[in-house]
Amino acid sequence: MGHISEAAQARPEADASASARREASTVHRVRRVLAIRPFRRLWGVTYLCSVADWLALLGLTGLVTKFTDSYMAQNFAFAGVVLTNLLPGLLFAPLGGLLADRFDRRKVMIAADLARFALLFSIPLVGSPIWLFVANFLVGSAAMMWIPSKDAAVPNLLRRPDQVETANQLGMVMTYGLAVVTGAGLYSVLTGVQTTLGLPQDAFGTFGVAYAVVFINSLLYLASALIVATRIPELSLRNVHPVPTNGAAPKRTEDEGEKPGLSAMIRDSLSFIRQTPLVRGLLIGMMGAFAAGGAVIGAAKPYSSSLGGGDASFGLLFVAVFIGAAVGLAGVPKLARRLPHDRLFGIGIVLAGLALILVALSPHLAVSLVAVAIVGACAGAAFLTGVTIIGSQIDDAIRGRVNAIYQSLMKIIIFGSTATVPLLIGLVQPRHVTVWGNPLTIDGTRPVLLGGGLLAALVGIIAYRQMDSRRTEPILADLRNVIRRRPRRVNGLLIALEGTTAADTETQAARLAEWLGTGNRRVVLAADPALDDTRLQAIVSGASLSSPRAQALAAAAVRADIVERDIQPALDSGAIVVMERFVDSPLAHLAAVAGLDAAELEGLADWATGRLRPDITVLLDSEPGAGAESTSSAQHHWRVQQLLTEMASSDPHRYVVVDAEGTEEIVADRVRTAVQAALVGKVKGLEPATVEA
C-alpha cells in the first residue's frame, strides 16, 4: 500500500495576518507555483500537447471528410475520429499507469510524443482513410502512456506538497481553457487562409490545407518531445515529497533494490485499492459522479426541449454547467482551508447529486439554470479535489497507477452512461403538463436525471464514510466554518509544555504523552528543536553564527522544518501532539539573554510555524533550584519566568499554570489534572474515563 496523509494547511486564527491573506490569494499561489522553473516548462509542454490534441480532433475530422463525397459518411466522420481517439483510454489507460510507476517517466513521455509525431506525420503520406483511423487510435494509445507519467511527475516538481492543488488548477485551465481556444483559433486560421487571401479554390489542391494542418499538428508533439528531453530533466525525479510514515508503504513483491514485474505491480495496485479506504472511497465516489455526469450529457438535449426553450435553452444550460465548473475549480483552495480534502470530495458529490435531483424536478428554465450551475460547481470541485488527493496523499511508487485507473474509469463510465442514457429515455412515453401556467414535457429525461442524482448522492455518502479521517470530529463544525468563512482547525490536538528548565519540560512532556497514550487517540511526542537538535548546532557552528538575531533565525528555520515535517502531518491525521517548549520558552530565553524585542521574536515564530498555536499550553511555574549556580543564573530564571507569566496572563483561555515544585510524580499528577480539566467535554475521543490518573 502507499503512504497516505492529510496534506492540508491549518490556519487557527480567524483574523489571519496580511501575509496569510496573501498566501491564500489565488494570484499569489499561482505566482509561487509558476516561479518553479521545471513546472513552468512542463506547463508549457502541457499547453503544446493540449493544443495538438484539440487541433488533431478538428484537423483529422476535416481531413477524413475529404476522403469521401458521401453525405452519410461525412456525418459519421466526427464520431469515428472521436471514437478511435477515445477507445485507447477505455482499453490502455491502466497500462500507462504501470509504465509511469515502472520506468523513467521522462523517457516514457518522450517516447509517447515521438510516437504521436510519427503517426500523425504518416497520415498525409499514406493518404488512406483506414490508416487515418488506425493512426488516430495509436495516437490515443500513446496519449494514454503520456498522461499518467505527466500527472504522476507533477508533485515531484513542486517545492511543497500543498502546491499540488494550484498546479492541478493551472493544468486544467491550460488543457480545457487556453488550449481549446488556441487549437480552435489555429484551425480557423489555417483553414481560412485560402478564403481570407482570396486564393482560388484549387490553389492548394483538395487535401493541401488539410494535410498542412496535420503536419503542423505533428510538429507540436515533436516540439514537446524535444523540450522534455532537453529542458526538464527533473521529470525523472522520484519521491521528492515522501508522505509521512503514519501511512502504509507499498508491499514489495521483489527483493529490495529490484523493480517488480508488471504482474506484481498489478497485484500491488489492486491490493492497495482494496486495503486503503481513502483510495477505495475516491474511486467509488468518482464512479457515481461520472455516471451522473454521463446522464447529464446524454439527456441534455432532450431535457432542454422538455423545458420548452428549444435550442436556446440547450445553449444556456451548456454555458451554465461550464460556468459552474469554473467556479467550483476556482473555489476549491479556499474551501480546503475550512474543510479537509477527504470530506470535501464526498460532500461535493452529495451536493452535486442533490442539485441534479432539483434539475430533474425543475418546472422552469430559470430554476434549471441555477441547479445545473450548482451541479457543475460541485462536480468541478470534486474532480479537482480527487486529483489533488492523488497528487498529494498517494505514495509516489503507486501514484501513476492510481491516476491511470482514475482517468480510465472516468472515460469508461462517461462513455458508457452517455451511450446508455438515450436508450433509457426512449423507454418513457412523453407527457405534456402545465405547471404554474407553463407548459412542461415530462419525458424520459426526468427519471434518468432523478436516478442519476440519487446515485450520485448515495455514492457520495459511501465515499465520505470511506475517506473521512476525522470520524471523531463532527462534520457540522466544518460546515459551520464554511458558512462563516472561518479557517478550519487541524484534526488533532496540540499540547505544549513551557517552563524555565529544559529538564523539567522534557520529563513532564514524556509523562503526559505516556498518560495520554493509554486513551483512544494516537499520541506523538515532539522535542524542542531549538535547544539540543544536532541540525541547529550544525547550522550555528558551521556558519559561525554568533549574533543573537542570526541564531534566532536559525532556530526559527529548524522549528519551521519540524512543524511542517512532523507536527502538522500528525495533527492532520488526528493525533495528539505533546511538545515541550514549543514557542513561548524559546522566545522568553532569547528575549532575556540577548535583549531582543519579544514582539519581533513572536512575529518570527508566527511566520516559522504558520501561526500554529497550541490548543492548551501548560506553564510549569518553579523557583530557581540547584541548577541556578549563580546570581546571574537566578536572575535569568526569574526574567524568563516573568515573561512566560505575562504571556499566560495575556491569553488565559489557552494557558494553565501548574506549580512545578515537588517530586516529578507530584508535578506529573498536577499536569494530568490540569489537562483533564481543561479538555473535558471539549475534545471527543479524549475521555478522562479511558485513562487512569
TrEMBL record:
Belongs to the thymidylate kinase family. Keywords: ATP-binding, Cell membrane, Kinase, Membrane, Nucleotide biosynthesis, Nucleotide-binding, Transferase, Transmembrane, Transmembrane helix. It is an enzyme of class 2 (transferase). Its EC number is 2.7.4.9. Gene3D superfamilies: MFS general substrate transporter like domains, P-loop containing nucleotide triphosphate hydrolases. It is found in: Cell membrane. This is Thymidylate kinase. It catalyses: dTMP + ATP = dTDP + ADP. Residues 507-669 form the Thymidylate kinase-like domain. The chain crosses the membrane at residues 42-64, 76-96, 170-189, 209-229, 278-300, 312-332, 344-361, 367-391, 412-428, 448-464. Residues 1-19 have a biased composition (Low complexity). It comes from Prauserella oleivorans. Phosphorylation of dTMP to form dTDP in both de novo and salvage pathways of dTTP synthesis. It comes from the Bacteria.
